[in-house]
What does this fold into?
Amino acid sequence: MTLEYVAGSVPVESLAITVQDENGNARTLSAYSSASLLVSGPDGVLRVGGTAAITDAANGLVTFTWPSTSLFDVPGDYRIALKLMSGSGADYTTPIRVVATRGLEG
It folds into this structure.
């Protein structure tokens, strides 16, 4: 899966991510207390901001609300992954590729 955004943009709509098991079925997230979205830029540096929340644990749904400044500051290939946390540790989802393209305005 690949997502595409324009570099410098701040999406208005939240990003809904369904965590799936190895068979493509929604994975229950009831064992987790919180989530965060990790964003790695073309330079390998993690970008921070925004808020992730487990919004439907039974159906594996995590919703990410974008920060007020862009996480995609330059054109290039980014990677995003969820960090799912519980009292005993954390699990990470397989990274998703995000392409930030140069916009028509600059």
User: Anything to note?
Assistant: The longest strand covers residues 76-86.
